[in-house]
Amino acid sequence: MTTARDLGIASLSAIKAGDRQGWLDLFEDDAFVQDPVGPSRMDPSGNGHHGKAAIAKFYDLFKLSMKSLDFDIHKSALGGEEVAAYVTLHITTQDDQKFDVDVLNIYRMSKNGKIASLRSFWEGG
């Protein structure tokens, strides 16, 4: 049986692999992504990205500046249909700058076993 934890790992793994379609396929058609939660340069309104078309545009935006991504999941806590995962993202930009970002990702799983929402908390967005 798939859990929200499984979906979170699959989401991060698809991004690491550069698998855009595989990442999008994890989401419900009416899912939403807030990455980060609140206003940011990628989401000035802070309302998130709603629906697969908007989520696909979000993916394309962050992939423009990112050459590669790796991750370490330090801890996760599963509760019902949600998981909170404390993760460090290891990012290399297109111009070979490397930096780490600590995030707390909250994934909610739908009744269909897909991601209904991803809310990512991190500072500096």
Strand content: 35-45%
Summarize the amount of helix as a percent range. 25-40%
Order of helices and strands: HHEEHEEEE
Tell me the name of the CATH class: Alpha Beta
Total discrete domains: 1
CATH topology: Nuclear Transport Factor 2, Chain: A
Total number of beta strands: 6
Strand arrangement across the biggest beta sheet: 2-1-6-5-4-3
Distance between the termini: 34 Å
CATH architecture: Roll
Radius of gyration: 14 Å
Total number of helices: 3
Shape: globular
Uncertain stretches of 5 or more adjacent residues: none
Query: Major sheet: size, sense and barrel closure?
Result: 6 strands, mixed
Overall SS class = alpha+beta
Question: Could you explain the architecture of this structure?
Answer:
This protein is of the alpha+beta class. The protein has one domain: Nuclear Transport Factor 2, Chain: A. It is built from three helices and six strands, in the order ααββαββββ. A six-stranded mixed β-sheet has the order 2-1-6-5-4-3. A hairpin with a 4-residue loop joins strand 4 and strand 5. It is 27% helix and 44% strand.
Short description:
By secondary structure, this protein is α+β, with helices and mostly antiparallel strands. The protein contains 3 helices and 6 strands.
Give me the secondary-structure topology:
Layout: H1 4-17, H2 20-25, E1 27-34, E2 49-50, H3 52-65, E3 66-79, E4 82-93, E5 98-109, E6 115-121
Parallel strand pairs: 1-6
Antiparallel strand pairs: 1-2, 3-4, 4-5, 5-6
Defining key terms:
44% strand, Nuclear Transport Factor 2, Chain: A, 3 helices, alpha+beta, 6 strands, 125 residues
